[in-house]
């Protein structure tokens, strides 16, 4: 019995300490990244917050006695909690998306979507010509997509180099009239702003649907950035494909009038795709750590039956990996058609090799 009490006491102290430092560190990072003024000023505020939580650190381990303490005994704890509450009010109440900034060139134009029955009109479909990371020719065009002609959908996974468990994921669509399009949910960056993991959790990026040509969106990652790219055919009825595409276009349209912040944890490429899928019902979809480990999402999709193949998962990863093919192929207007021919050929070769 004494052991149980000691264990419960230890767990209680651990939880209090963890919660205390979580609030303190979150408050420091929130004011550093979003606070008013220069980074020197917000940095000094962040250091002050951490120092305040450090000097008051002994109090949180005995929070159940806090209400019985006199003011001199709890003034540091009280001050730290008031500071954290003030930062949270400022962060959630006053830090709002600012669309009047100079964006990175490839994210400079937000797609403008108009839905007219089965016709989806999209302005600013991205079509950059990439020669290197810094050498490119910007390009945008307007396009009308006919939902009745949508006949294929692909789930694309592009893992981060050296960190396979984290990936950018997006969706591509094909139409019977030969049109193809990629829809990529991304963190919209200011000009010269790199994508960084910690800032992306503190309202430094805005959410954006990039609607673009596959030779741009897919080719950029496989040929220019040299990242692995897995191009999986999705198993879905034409009606479900149409519903997913329309739902994503509605999501892009909504951001035109109501901009949102991107967040690495709960408002990112993976969570947005899952949001559109959940709206349509169907398979039970994950809500846990699988959503964060986007680089492993292809296995989850395979296990749920979303990948349209009779290969094993290991065979499918080999068959639908396309970045080696992209190393020697031009990023021209026939890219989308040749990409589909390539995965069909590689799938057939993998199936033959497995016999």
What does this protein look like?
By secondary structure, the chain is of the alpha+beta class. Helix content is 45%, strand content 19%. It is built from eleven helices and ten strands. It has helices at residues 2-34, 39-55, 71-94, 214-224, 238-257, 269-280, 289-292, 297-303, 313-319, 323-326, 335-353, and strands at 112-116, 119-126, 129-130, 136-137, 140-146, 150-160, 163-175, 180-188, 206-212, 230-233. A five-stranded antiparallel β-sheet has the order 9-8-7-6-10, with helices on both faces. It has a three-stranded antiparallel β-sheet with strand order 1-2-5, with helices on one face. The radius of gyration is 24 Å and the shape is globular. The protein starts with a helix and ends with a helix. The model has no long low-confidence stretch (mean pLDDT 88).
Distance between the termini: 61 Å
According to DSSP, the number of beta strands is 10
| Helical content class | 40-55%
Indicate the mean pLDDT.
88
% residues in beta strands: 15-25%
Q: Low-confidence stretches at least 5 residues in length (pLDDT < 50)? A: none
Shape: globular
Count of separate DSSP helical elements: 11
Largest sheet: 5 strands, antiparallel
How do the strands of the widest beta sheet line up side by side? 9-8-7-6-10
What is the radius of gyration computed over CA atoms, rounded to a whole number of angstroms? 24 Å
Following the backbone from N to C, one meets helices and strands in this order, namely HHHEEEEEEEEEHEHHHHHHH
Helix-and-strand structural type = alpha+beta
């Amino acid at each position: 019995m004494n052991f149980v009490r000691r264990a419960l006491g230890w767990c209680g102290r651990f939880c209090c300490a963890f919660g205390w430092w979580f609030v303190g560190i979150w408050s420091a990072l929130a004011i550093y990244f979003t606070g008013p003024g220069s980074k020197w000023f917000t940095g000094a505020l962040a250091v002050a917050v951490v120092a305040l939580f450090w000097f008051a650190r002994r109090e949180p381990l005995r929070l159940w006695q806090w209400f019985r303490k006199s003011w001199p005994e709890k003034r540091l704890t009280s001050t730290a909690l008031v500071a954290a509450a003030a930062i949270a009010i400022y962060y959630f109440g006053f830090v709002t998306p600012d669309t009047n900034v100079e964006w990175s060139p490839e994210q400079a134009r937000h797609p403008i979507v108009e839905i007219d029955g089965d016709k989806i009109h999209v302005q600013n479909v991205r079509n950059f010509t990439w020669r290197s990371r810094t050498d490119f020719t910007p390009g945008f065009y307007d396009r009308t997509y006919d939902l009745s002609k949508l006949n294929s959908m692909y789930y694309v996974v592009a893992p981060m180099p050296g960190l396979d468990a984290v990936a950018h994921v997006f969706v591509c669509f094909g139409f019977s009239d030969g049109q193809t399009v990629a829809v990529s949910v991304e963190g919209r960056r200011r000009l010269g702003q790199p994508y960084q993991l910690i800032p992306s959790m503190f309202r430094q990026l805005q959410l954006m649907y990039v609607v673009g040509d596959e030779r741009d969106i897919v080719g950029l990652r496989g040929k220019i950035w040299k990242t692995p790219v897995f191009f999986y055919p999705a198993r879905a009825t034409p009606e479900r494909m149409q519903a997913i595409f329309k739902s994503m276009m509605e999501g892009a349209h909504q951001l035109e009038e109501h901009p949102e912040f991107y967040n690495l944890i709960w408002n990112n490429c993976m969570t947005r795709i899952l949001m559109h899928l959940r709206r349509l019902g169907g398979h039970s979809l994950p809500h846990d750590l699988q959503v964060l480990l986007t680089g492993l999402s292809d296995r989850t999709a395979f296990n749920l039956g979303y990948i349209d193949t009779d290969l094993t998962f290991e065979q499918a990863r080999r068959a639908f990996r396309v970045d080696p093919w992209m190393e020697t192929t031009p990023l021209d207007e026939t890219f989308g058609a040749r990409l589909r021919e390539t995965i069909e050929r590689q799938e057939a070769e993998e199936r033959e090799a497995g016999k």
